[in-house]
């Protein structure tokens, strides 16, 4: 796939992110940060792409002619669909954008396109109460060497801690296993598989809250993620952007393990940080301030990025036993 085609696909992803015209300022800022964070690749100027889309200097008709291969056209549609579905089922304006895109790409409304839509909607609407089924190839991994997390230093008195159903060691293992699983999913080439990471993160938060006696709904969990700065659309954009840029970098300075390490780092670290902050939040009776939670999340993200390299071999091994069908089954709780 050419640099021009990847440039076009990323532009379409950004157009999809703003298709409903109803992005919160916080989400706009997170998308901007994603563009700047991925700007290390000199072949594609993502901050400039972001500004072109935001200021409406580029339209769908401007980039479609650059998608010359059938592979690029199919990939553009799949990624745009995932962007629109990332924060829940696509809105009516987003569905209209996807219909225009599908028609312009001459994909029609055939069986294959319908199956992609059905799979995406199955992922984003997965039940929170489903079990976190581990792939058959996965065994419990050893815990990292003990070291203090920022969340461990939060001012929660022992008397204020709610009793949980899991021991501290079991909770750490649960969070670590979820982080490794999401890191493994991000290594897969299929874009629909990557869309499963957010529902699995939401299920982890649900199960952590449940272990302390809280019954959470999807809206509460989305609010918690937003408080921590975990935007759903922007998180998918970052994951997808890393994969696309990895196709270019893989030809040069980053290949093999290096490219995989860059790819899986975000999902492993964000799941790891989200799990540990959620654990302290619900253990402390949901009494932590927004500022304390955001600060703790950023510090534990740093821990997660450091640990990611340690657990990369487990992610690589697990990814070899995963495919879209297995992931759909896991997310559905089966």
Computed structural class: mainly alpha
Distance between the termini: 36 Å
Q: What is the mean predicted local confidence, pLDDT?
A: 78
The description of the largest β-sheet is:
none
Radius of gyration using CA atoms only: 20 Å
* N to C succession of SSEs: HHHHHHHHHHHHHHH
Structural features, described:
- With 334 residues, the chain is an all-alpha fold.
- The protein folds into two domains: 3-124, TerB-like, CATH 1.10.3680; 151-331, no CATH class.
- Helices cover 65% and strands 0% of the residues.
- The chain contains 15 helices and no strands.
- The chain has helices at residues 3-17, 25-37, 46-54, 60-63, 70-85, 92-104, 111-124, 168-187, 191-194, 197-211, 218-228, 232-249, 257-283, 290-319, 324-331.
- Helix 1 (3-17) packs across helix 3 (46-54), helix 2 packs antiparallel against helix 3 and helix 5 (70-85) runs antiparallel to helix 6 (92-104).
- The longest helix is centred in the last third of the chain and has 30 residues, at 290-319.
- The radius of gyration is 20 Å and the shape is globular.
- The two termini are 36 Å apart.
Q: Can you lay out the helices and strands and say which pair or pack?
A:
Layout: H1 3-17, H2 25-37, H3 46-54, H4 60-63, H5 70-85, H6 92-104, H7 111-124, H8 168-187, H9 191-194, H10 197-211, H11 218-228, H12 232-249, H13 257-283, H14 290-319, H15 324-331
């Amino acid at each position: 796939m050419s640099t021009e085609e990847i440039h076009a696909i990323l532009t379409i992803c950004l157009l999809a992110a703003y298709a409903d015209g109803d992005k919160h300022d916080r989400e706009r800022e997170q998308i901007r940060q994603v563009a700047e964070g991925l700007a290390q690749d000199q072949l594609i100027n993502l901050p400039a792409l972001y500004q072109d889309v935001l200021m409406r200097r580029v339209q769908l008709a401007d980039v479609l002619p650059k998608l010359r291969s059938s592979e690029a056209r199919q990939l553009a549609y799949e990624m745009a669909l995932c962007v629109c579905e990332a924060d829940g089922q696509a809105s009516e304006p987003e569905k209209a954008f996807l219909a225009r895109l599908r028609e312009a790409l001459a994909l029609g409304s055939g069986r294959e396109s319908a199956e992609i839509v059905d799979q995406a909607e199955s992922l984003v609407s997965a039940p929170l109460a489903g079990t976190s089924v581990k792939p058959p190839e996965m065994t419990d991994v050893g815990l990292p060497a003990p070291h203090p997390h920022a969340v461990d230093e939060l001012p929660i008195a022992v008397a204020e801690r709610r009793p949980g159903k899991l021991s501290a060691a079991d909770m750490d293992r649960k969070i670590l296993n979820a982080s490794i699983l999401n890191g493994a999913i991000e290594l897969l080439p299929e874009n629909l598989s990557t869309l499963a990471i957010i529902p699995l993160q939401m299920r982890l938060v649900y199960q952590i809250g449940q272990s302390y006696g809280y019954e959470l709904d999807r809206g509460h969990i989305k609010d918690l993620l937003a408080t921590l700065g975990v935007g759903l659309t922007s998180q998918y954009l970052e994951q997808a952007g890393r994969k696309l840029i990895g196709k270019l970098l893989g030809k040069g300075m980053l290949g093999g393990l290096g490219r995989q390490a860059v790819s899986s780092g975000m999902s492993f670290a964000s799941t790891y940080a989200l799990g540990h902050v959620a654990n302290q939040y619900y253990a402390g009776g949901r009494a932590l301030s927004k500022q304390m939670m955001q600060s703790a999340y950023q510090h534990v993200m740093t821990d997660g990025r450091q640990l990611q390299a340690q657990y990369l071999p487990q992610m690589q091994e697990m990814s070899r036993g995963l495919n879209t069908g297995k992931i759909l089954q896991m997310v559905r709780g089966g």
